[in-house]
Amino acid sequence: MAKLDQVLASLPIFDQEWLKQLSFVPTNTKLELVYHFYQHSKGRLIKLNIASYPDSFEKLASWLEYRKSINKPVKAYLTKIGDLHYLKLRAEDMAEYVYIEIESKRIYVAKNTVIRGQFASFLRYLLYYSGYELKYEKAGRAKSFKPKKTKQISLL
User: Domain limits of the chain?
Assistant: First the structure.
């Protein structure tokens, strides 16, 4: 853990104190860097690009406290994958994790994770309330799902 202390020494004082409070969980997974992801909105497909990264974790920490106060906590851990240290975040009702590299604040997900649906919404809220700047682009029309007409549906 001596390496973690060296990494924390380069961060702002608030980040050092907040990250030291988190528990360390070992992780053995391969990560993929997230530059952008897609989300459905009002029948359209929206491409969300990560435009800029925050300087500190201060907004993230306050957002996590807010989530805890409304009974929708986000679990946060410290972890190390390879030579880099990450912040490992997961909403209580989801299985996938979001990884934030501590030094550069870049966003990663596990290599086999598909970012869509509820996970895409969680990731968007996490980034927005943590101080990341997102740029929205229209990427086309979203394919709508029409259920096959069955006897059960027609009874409604």
Answer: 2-154
